[in-house]
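Trying the structure run again after the queue cleared.
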Amino acid sequence: MKITLRTLLLLVALLPLMTWGQDTNYMNDPMARAIMDTYASMLRENPQDYATYLNRAKEYYRYGDYTRAVDDLNEAIKYYPREDISNLSQAYTIRGLIYQMQGDDMKAIADFNEALQLDPTSRFSLIGRADLLREMGDYAHAKEDYQLLLRRDSRSQEAYLGLGVIAFKENNMGMCHEYMEKAEKANSTNVEFYLTRATIYEEMGEWRKAADDYVTAMTLGDNHRSVAGINALSAIAYKPVVDALTVAVETADERGFYYFIRGTIHMNNRHYSASIQDWNTIVENNLLHFHSVYYNRGFCYMRLGQFDYALEDISAAIMMKGDQMSYYLTRSKLHRVMGDYEQAEADILIASTFDMTHEGVLTQRAMLATERGEYEAALNYYNEAVLCSADDASLYLLRGDIHALMKDDESAVRNYEMMINIPEEVPVYTSYRGFAMARLGRMTDAEQWMESVIASIKGVPSPDDYYNAACLYTHTGNKTKAYYYLEEALKAGYGDYFNLYFEYDMPVSLAPLRGEADFRELVRSYSDGF
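Done. Tokens:
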């Protein structure tokens, strides 16, 4: 489904009752069912009741039932009197927006054209057509529509924003910034504007400006798309994002919210000590009383190897909110690492009551069975996990390793070769092909694969990228390259002490290096990161 932020704005204006992301099984809602039954009754009495078709189409759209929405719009358009240009034009516009969302650009353009032929003054129809023409790369005609909007309304934010996007696409950065400034002045409280401009700044590589726009969108009340956007941005621009959130923490009224977001950004980028500081501030100042604050702090303690603190916080989170499967899975792993297999098993059993076929449940059970030497049971769990999550390449690697532990080399090789034979257009780490190659003794091929993965990364590799490379070279026995990439990861701020010293569930760890003095000294030299 294709939809732009501007399209969302148009639909919000045209369909003010719309509830985004609502369950399409709306007939389970008594109120919705009553409304739809009323419309159905009215249409049985008058099958040509065009106004009811239009109103019901809006309801269908509200609940995400686009097929029925289009069907009703078709009927409305068929029966509406041609002289009722306003409602008829609106029907074409809404149908055009739906077609645009569905990626049927030609039908969408035809509907926008029809809407404008009926009512040339329709602002929404003109915006819809201009934005779609811009998306299609027809900049000349899009500019004509935006300029027409400006002639009718010299403060049209939609027009300035659209022209700014086109200027950016045409590499005219001066005009781009000029249009963006005019768009902001036209309406400085429009969330959609800041979200759109943030994506443009991202494409420009102006990370701090993008982060500032996401923060502004948050302050204006958008706590979903803006958070998702800034979190994604942090993966490539961690410091600018943290800097923008720090300003918000220091100046905003809802400090707890921004501490939470910044703590999450720290955590997601493996800066666990910094993350803990934010969770501590929230708890000590009673800014928020969420179970996730305690879980997140516990998770960070776990990644720093401070297991007692981790266990205390994660248990507190479970006491506050006992219906979170992920909490039990994390505590189970924590118990297992601490050697308490009985408690680890107890937590897995509770997690399984939520979803016994969940990949996390099955793999945790397999890993616990492996540690106990119960290889047949572990193999059965991995077999079930593969059936439920056939696209997860790591499961084949884990299953192959269990076969190897069981001295079933033929089955182990079959799993590794299965991974290698899966087509891979662009080398990505999560295919684990190089690790399968290393298991088969194809060390040169494995290392070439890893270098291809690094080369395919756009921009500067992340700390995780360097860590992954270090793991691969550890398993090919190339210690020189393993230590090189490990140091690059640590230089770049890799702060996952658990992965460095304790992780052994995944067969892609640094375990073969941990006993070496050089390894311990290298990690110690970057201890500030922990």
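The chain has 30 helices and no strands. Worth checking whether this holds up in the mutant runs.
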